[in-house]
Design brief:
Order of helices and strands: EEEHHEHEHEHE
Radius of gyration: 17 Å
Number of helices: 5
Strand order of the largest sheet: 3-4-5-6-7
Strand content: 15-25%
Number of strands: 7
Length: 191
């Protein structure tokens, strides 16, 4: 008997999203409706060679009407072990997997930075920014997950350092300074 062939539907290429004022939309001006879920371990699965787990989560998102996922690119010695080099190495593949399913990714550059030097954090932000600039499935970069969390370096709560990090993201890539926690305001006090 011939082998059974399963064909996946071919999705149209994802359009690169753009910032228009305070909104994100397509190049032709259509608004982008954000329906994301956080995939805490999603990139870790890819980096650890467990693509089936990543694919299962992405397929689950797609089947339930989500249009993207928020992913962490690093979280060493915590819930899971995803170091910067592994996150940077796995991100292009995860972006491809998301794009194949018509999904976007919001990519979080810094998590669990308490003991990291500023130069290490800057290197990570620069690398993630370049990867996101090169792939249409990356909708935005979030500099840090919960900047004020005790697992984060105090440096990423410093306005001057955050401005330095923001400047490392290539033009055209939407970027936020990060989500906040612990009763702190969501909006930073600078433009």
């Amino acid at each position: 008997w011939p082998a059974r062939i399963v064909l996946k539907p071919t999705l149209a290429p994802l359009p690169r999203l753009r910032v228009n004022g305070r909104r994100i939309g397509t190049a032709d001006g259509q608004p982008f409706i954000w329906r994301f879920a956080t995939g805490f371990r999603l990139l870790d699965y890819v980096a650890d060679g467990n693509e089936p787990a990543a694919i299962a989560f992405l397929d689950w998102l797609q089947a339930r009407g989500f249009n993207g996922a928020r992913v962490l690119t690093t979280l060493c010695q915590s819930w899971f072990d995803l170091c910067q080099e592994d996150g940077q190495r796995g991100l292009p593949r995860l972006l491809d997997l998301a794009q194949e399913r018509g999904l976007y990714l919001e990519v979080v550059a810094l998590t669990g930075t308490k003991d990291q030097a500023k130069a290490t954090m800057a290197s990570q932000v620069r690398a993630i920014g370049l990867l996101c600039a090169s792939h249409p499935a990356c909708v935005s970069v979030e500099l840090a997950n919960e900047n004020a969390h005790p697992t984060q370096s105090e440096a990423i709560q410093d306005e001057a350092f955050l401005r330095t990090l923001l400047g490392l993201i290539p033009p055209g890539v939407p970027v936020s300074s990060g989500s906040s926690c612990c009763g702190e305001p969501d909006e930073p006090p600078y433009p």
